[in-house]
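Question:
Write out your own:
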Amino acid sequence: MPLLNSLFLNIKEGKAIRAAVPLVGVVEKERLHCFYGKAEPPAFTLFFPPGTLSIDQVDTSRTCMVMIDFADQTVSISADISKLLDPQTLELIAQETISHSQSRGFFRVDANTSVAASSTTPEEMAQEGEQWRLLGDTIDLSGSGLLCSFSEPLEKGKSVRIELTLPTRDMETINAVGHVVRCRKINPSLYHAAFHFDSIDSESQDKIMACCFELQRRHLRMRVQVQNYG
Protein backbone atom coordinates (compact mmCIF):
# COMPACT_ATOMS: atom_id res chain seq x y z
CA MET A 1 0.00 0.00 0.00
CA PRO A 2 2.85 2.51 0.59
CA LEU A 3 3.73 2.08 -3.11
CA LEU A 4 0.18 3.01 -4.11
CA ASN A 5 0.13 5.97 -1.73
CA SER A 6 3.36 7.35 -3.22
CA LEU A 7 1.93 6.81 -6.71
CA PHE A 8 -1.06 9.02 -5.90
CA LEU A 9 1.26 11.84 -4.83
CA ASN A 10 2.45 12.06 -8.43
CA ILE A 11 -1.00 12.26 -10.02
CA LYS A 12 -2.29 15.77 -10.63
CA GLU A 13 -5.86 16.72 -9.79
CA GLY A 14 -7.97 16.64 -12.95
CA LYS A 15 -5.54 14.43 -14.89
CA ALA A 16 -7.21 12.76 -17.88
CA ILE A 17 -7.19 8.97 -17.48
CA ARG A 18 -9.18 5.95 -18.67
CA ALA A 19 -11.23 3.47 -16.68
CA ALA A 20 -12.86 0.12 -17.38
CA VAL A 21 -16.08 0.32 -15.34
CA PRO A 22 -18.08 -2.85 -14.53
CA LEU A 23 -21.79 -2.72 -15.39
CA VAL A 24 -24.58 -4.88 -14.02
CA GLY A 25 -25.26 -7.92 -16.20
CA VAL A 26 -22.48 -7.11 -18.67
CA VAL A 27 -19.32 -9.25 -18.73
CA GLU A 28 -17.10 -6.80 -20.63
CA LYS A 29 -16.38 -3.60 -18.73
CA GLU A 30 -17.29 -0.21 -20.20
CA ARG A 31 -14.18 1.69 -21.27
CA LEU A 32 -14.56 5.40 -20.56
CA HIS A 33 -12.45 8.55 -20.47
CA CYS A 34 -12.57 10.35 -17.12
CA PHE A 35 -10.62 12.67 -14.80
CA TYR A 36 -8.76 11.93 -11.59
CA GLY A 37 -9.75 13.51 -8.28
CA LYS A 38 -7.73 13.42 -5.07
CA ALA A 39 -8.99 11.92 -1.81
CA GLU A 40 -7.37 10.32 1.24
CA PRO A 41 -5.13 7.53 -0.19
CA PRO A 42 -5.73 4.81 -1.13
CA ALA A 43 -9.10 6.40 -1.99
CA PHE A 44 -9.52 8.56 -5.09
CA THR A 45 -12.36 9.75 -7.31
CA LEU A 46 -13.15 9.54 -11.00
CA PHE A 47 -15.15 12.29 -12.67
CA PHE A 48 -16.90 11.39 -15.94
CA PRO A 49 -18.02 13.96 -18.53
CA PRO A 50 -21.81 14.48 -18.58
CA GLY A 51 -23.73 11.75 -20.39
CA THR A 52 -20.93 9.18 -20.50
CA LEU A 53 -21.60 7.18 -17.31
CA SER A 54 -24.82 5.23 -16.59
CA ILE A 55 -24.53 5.54 -12.81
CA ASP A 56 -27.53 3.28 -12.15
CA GLN A 57 -25.86 0.48 -14.14
CA VAL A 58 -22.51 0.49 -12.29
CA ASP A 59 -21.77 -2.86 -10.61
CA THR A 60 -20.14 -1.98 -7.27
CA SER A 61 -19.48 -5.66 -6.47
CA ARG A 62 -16.75 -5.87 -9.12
CA THR A 63 -13.41 -4.13 -9.47
CA CYS A 64 -12.75 -1.17 -11.72
CA MET A 65 -9.54 -1.02 -13.79
CA VAL A 66 -7.87 2.38 -14.10
CA MET A 67 -5.05 3.25 -16.53
CA ILE A 68 -2.84 6.26 -15.79
CA ASP A 69 -0.20 7.60 -18.19
CA PHE A 70 3.02 9.07 -16.84
CA ALA A 71 5.94 10.46 -18.84
CA ASP A 72 7.88 7.19 -18.87
CA GLN A 73 5.27 4.51 -18.23
CA THR A 74 1.60 3.59 -18.04
CA VAL A 75 0.32 2.25 -14.71
CA SER A 76 -2.84 0.16 -14.34
CA ILE A 77 -4.63 -0.02 -10.98
CA SER A 78 -7.29 -2.42 -9.74
CA ALA A 79 -9.74 -0.61 -7.44
CA ASP A 80 -12.97 -1.31 -5.56
CA ILE A 81 -15.90 1.05 -6.09
CA SER A 82 -16.78 2.36 -2.62
CA LYS A 83 -19.33 5.11 -3.37
CA LEU A 84 -21.46 6.57 -6.14
CA LEU A 85 -21.00 10.21 -5.19
CA ASP A 86 -23.22 11.70 -7.89
CA PRO A 87 -24.29 10.88 -11.49
CA GLN A 88 -20.82 11.79 -12.76
CA THR A 89 -18.48 10.78 -9.93
CA LEU A 90 -17.27 7.51 -8.41
CA GLU A 91 -15.15 7.07 -5.30
CA LEU A 92 -12.75 4.14 -5.46
CA ILE A 93 -10.29 2.39 -3.16
CA ALA A 94 -7.09 1.27 -4.87
CA GLN A 95 -6.14 -2.36 -4.20
CA GLU A 96 -3.08 -3.10 -6.32
CA THR A 97 -1.14 -2.12 -9.40
CA ILE A 98 -1.49 -4.44 -12.39
CA SER A 99 1.53 -5.50 -14.43
CA HIS A 100 1.85 -4.87 -18.18
CA SER A 101 1.14 -8.53 -18.98
CA GLN A 102 -1.89 -8.66 -16.65
CA SER A 103 -3.42 -5.54 -18.16
CA ARG A 104 -3.28 -6.78 -21.76
CA GLY A 105 -6.86 -8.00 -21.81
CA PHE A 106 -8.44 -5.18 -19.82
CA PHE A 107 -8.07 -2.19 -22.09
CA ARG A 108 -9.14 -1.66 -25.64
CA VAL A 109 -8.40 1.48 -27.60
CA ASP A 110 -10.42 2.97 -30.44
CA ALA A 111 -8.41 2.22 -33.57
CA ASN A 112 -9.31 2.39 -37.26
CA THR A 113 -6.94 0.41 -39.46
CA SER A 114 -6.95 -2.35 -42.07
CA VAL A 115 -7.48 -5.98 -41.08
CA ALA A 116 -7.92 -9.23 -43.00
CA ALA A 117 -9.49 -12.45 -41.75
CA SER A 118 -8.93 -15.68 -43.63
CA SER A 119 -9.13 -19.45 -43.43
CA THR A 120 -6.68 -21.30 -41.17
CA THR A 121 -6.71 -24.33 -43.50
CA PRO A 122 -3.47 -24.55 -45.54
CA GLU A 123 -4.11 -24.00 -49.24
CA GLU A 124 -2.71 -27.41 -50.23
CA MET A 125 -5.08 -29.16 -47.79
CA ALA A 126 -8.19 -27.10 -48.45
CA GLN A 127 -11.24 -28.62 -50.04
CA GLU A 128 -13.59 -26.68 -52.28
CA GLY A 129 -15.07 -23.69 -50.45
CA GLU A 130 -12.67 -23.89 -47.50
CA GLN A 131 -10.42 -21.08 -48.71
CA TRP A 132 -11.81 -17.62 -47.99
CA ARG A 133 -10.58 -14.13 -47.11
CA LEU A 134 -12.41 -11.03 -45.84
CA LEU A 135 -11.04 -7.49 -45.81
CA GLY A 136 -12.29 -5.07 -43.19
CA ASP A 137 -11.43 -2.34 -40.70
CA THR A 138 -10.79 -2.41 -36.98
CA ILE A 139 -13.05 -0.58 -34.52
CA ASP A 140 -10.96 -1.12 -31.42
CA LEU A 141 -7.84 -3.01 -30.45
CA SER A 142 -6.18 -4.61 -27.43
CA GLY A 143 -3.39 -7.02 -26.65
CA SER A 144 -5.87 -9.88 -26.41
CA GLY A 145 -8.08 -9.23 -29.42
CA LEU A 146 -9.91 -6.75 -31.61
CA LEU A 147 -13.31 -5.65 -32.86
CA CYS A 148 -13.71 -5.32 -36.63
CA SER A 149 -16.26 -4.42 -39.27
CA PHE A 150 -16.79 -6.64 -42.33
CA SER A 151 -19.24 -6.80 -45.21
CA GLU A 152 -20.06 -10.46 -44.47
CA PRO A 153 -20.80 -12.39 -41.25
CA LEU A 154 -18.46 -14.79 -39.48
CA GLU A 155 -19.59 -17.78 -37.45
CA LYS A 156 -19.15 -17.58 -33.67
CA GLY A 157 -16.28 -19.82 -32.52
CA LYS A 158 -14.77 -20.02 -36.02
CA SER A 159 -10.95 -20.16 -36.12
CA VAL A 160 -9.44 -17.42 -38.29
CA ARG A 161 -6.06 -16.19 -39.45
CA ILE A 162 -5.73 -12.48 -38.68
CA GLU A 163 -3.55 -9.99 -40.55
CA LEU A 164 -3.55 -6.66 -38.73
CA THR A 165 -1.91 -3.48 -40.03
CA LEU A 166 -0.83 -1.44 -37.02
CA PRO A 167 -1.82 2.26 -37.28
CA THR A 168 1.76 3.43 -36.70
CA ARG A 169 4.30 5.25 -38.82
CA ASP A 170 5.77 2.00 -40.17
CA MET A 171 2.34 0.41 -40.86
CA GLU A 172 3.72 -2.96 -39.72
CA THR A 173 1.60 -6.08 -40.31
CA ILE A 174 0.93 -8.42 -37.37
CA ASN A 175 -0.08 -12.04 -38.00
CA ALA A 176 -2.02 -14.11 -35.47
CA VAL A 177 -4.55 -16.90 -35.18
CA GLY A 178 -7.74 -16.34 -33.22
CA HIS A 179 -11.42 -17.17 -33.05
CA VAL A 180 -14.68 -15.28 -33.43
CA VAL A 181 -16.08 -14.37 -30.01
CA ARG A 182 -19.26 -12.83 -31.43
CA CYS A 183 -20.62 -11.39 -34.65
CA ARG A 184 -23.44 -8.84 -34.80
CA LYS A 185 -25.41 -7.71 -37.85
CA ILE A 186 -25.50 -3.90 -38.09
CA ASN A 187 -27.22 -3.73 -41.49
CA PRO A 188 -27.46 -6.06 -44.53
CA SER A 189 -23.91 -5.18 -45.66
CA LEU A 190 -22.17 -4.47 -42.33
CA TYR A 191 -21.22 -6.87 -39.53
CA HIS A 192 -19.19 -6.31 -36.37
CA ALA A 193 -17.01 -9.27 -35.40
CA ALA A 194 -14.97 -9.58 -32.20
CA PHE A 195 -11.83 -11.74 -32.26
CA HIS A 196 -9.75 -13.18 -29.44
CA PHE A 197 -6.10 -14.01 -30.12
CA ASP A 198 -5.36 -17.72 -29.54
CA SER A 199 -1.87 -17.84 -31.04
CA ILE A 200 0.34 -14.77 -31.24
CA ASP A 201 4.05 -14.38 -30.51
CA SER A 202 5.07 -12.19 -27.57
CA GLU A 203 6.93 -9.68 -29.77
CA SER A 204 3.84 -9.06 -31.90
CA GLN A 205 1.66 -8.74 -28.80
CA ASP A 206 4.08 -6.22 -27.30
CA LYS A 207 3.94 -4.20 -30.53
CA ILE A 208 0.15 -4.15 -30.34
CA MET A 209 0.25 -3.00 -26.71
CA ALA A 210 2.80 -0.28 -27.52
CA CYS A 211 0.50 0.88 -30.32
CA CYS A 212 -2.50 0.85 -27.93
CA PHE A 213 -0.66 2.94 -25.34
CA GLU A 214 0.35 5.48 -27.98
CA LEU A 215 -3.21 5.71 -29.34
CA GLN A 216 -4.52 6.07 -25.78
CA ARG A 217 -2.17 8.98 -25.14
CA ARG A 218 -3.36 10.65 -28.35
CA HIS A 219 -7.01 10.20 -27.38
CA LEU A 220 -6.41 11.60 -23.89
CA ARG A 221 -4.49 14.61 -25.24
CA MET A 222 -7.33 15.35 -27.67
CA ARG A 223 -9.87 15.00 -24.85
CA VAL A 224 -7.98 17.46 -22.67
CA GLN A 225 -7.65 19.93 -25.55
CA VAL A 226 -11.40 19.76 -26.23
CA GLN A 227 -12.13 20.31 -22.52
CA ASN A 228 -9.74 23.28 -22.37
CA TYR A 229 -11.39 24.90 -25.39
CA GLY A 230 -14.89 24.20 -24.09
Notes: Residues 109-220 form a domain with the Thrombin, subunit H fold (CATH 2.40.10.220). The helical segments are 2-9, 202-229.
